[in-house]
Design brief:
The structure is a single chain. The chain contains eleven helices and no strands. The two termini are 54 Å apart. It folds into two domains: 84 residues; 178 residues, Hypothetical protein af1432 (Orthogonal Bundle). The chain is elongated, with a radius of gyration of 30 Å. Helices cover 58% and strands 0% of the residues. It is mostly helical. Bound molecules: fe (ii) ion. The site of fe (ii) ion has 5 residues, from loops.
Length: 278
């Protein structure tokens, strides 16, 4: 309310946040109307702010719900795969632990560690699409059977691609069988073109496969497996990651413990498969 009637004064007042501009002498009716309108406007602004805040909470809740539904479906697929291939469960867990140990020594940021953990847990999920007789076959595979097995990174990627939560880990899973010299699959990409998480998992995966008894051969000793990993540095594996792995592995083997507790996932699912609802 002012006795100044100039237009510039009115504009300046409104710019400074005034709701309206009443000149003296004023009528009580106009003053009452102006105050009522201002209060209504204020109330609507508060309602809008509350609505936006609630909307964000609701969207977060719904996203959490959708993610947990997806994770439950993936749990079921993991269970189905474990039923088909008894070797998978322990293998995925050990690949996760070895991969996390390497990544920790590479000083990867926490969000990368979390992505790597999911990728390692799920890296072989695509084997759900491989026949059980092939997964557990004692002898060597025919070329047709081999082609079925090598599809598993792409199958896993197709299964996981609709899930927003896993979008960032798809390249790591897709390329976990690439070789540093470009002779792997499915992309035949080489060197640093291969995602770092895939280069880490490739070593963890191969080391664990070699030190485990499989349907078609007995386990190698840890020394033999380490020597093989070292022999393949620069051809099959990233030599820098190999040297980190070998230094980590020596520490792990010290007193028979696989890994220190802090390298394990903190929010494991009740099933212990390494998946957790964020
Ligand atoms: Fe694999």
């Amino acid at each position: 309310m002012t006795a100044h009637a100039e237009l510039e004064t009115a504009v300046a007042a409104l710019k400074n946040g005034a709701y309206d501009y009443i000149r003296k002498p004023f009528s009580f009716d106009i003053l009452f109307l102006t105050i009522r309108n201002a209060l209504e406007k204020r109330s609507m602004e508060c309602q809008l702010r509350n609505y936006q805040a609630n909307l964000e909470t609701k969207v977060k809740e719904q996203t959490g719900l959708i993610n947990s539904m997806y994770l439950r479906s993936i749990h079921s697929l993991i269970k189905a795969l474990e039923a088909k291939d008894r070797y998978t469960r322990g293998h995925s867990q050990r690949v996760t632990l070895y991969s996390m140990a390497i990544a920790t020594h590479l000083d990867l940021p926490p969000e990368h560690l979390e992505d790597l953990r999911y990728a390692a847990v799920l890296h072989d999920l695509g084997k759900i699409g491989v026949r059980e007789t092939i997964l557990n076959k004692p002898g060597s595979l025919t070329s047709e059977e081999f082609l079925e097995v090598v599809r598993h990174p792409e199958v896993a990627t197709r299964i996981l691609s609709p899930i927003p939560l896993f979008r960032d880990i798809l390249p790591a899973i897709l390329h976990h069988h690439e070789r540093f010299d470009g002779k792997g699959y499915p992309g035949r990409i080489a060197g640093k073109e291969i995602p770092l998480h895939s280069r880490i998992m490739a070593i963890a995966d191969t080391y664990d496969a070699m030190t485990s008894t499989r349907a078609y051969r007995p386990a190698l000793s840890e020394e033999e497996a380490s020597a093989e990993i070292l022999r393949c540095a620069g051809t099959q594996f990233d030599p820098e990651v190999v040297s980190v792995f070998l230094s980590v592995k020596d520490k792990l083997d010290g007193n028979g413990d696989l890994l220190p507790l802090e390298w394990r996932g903190e929010e494991e699912s009740p099933d212990g498969d390494g998946l957790s609802v964020p």
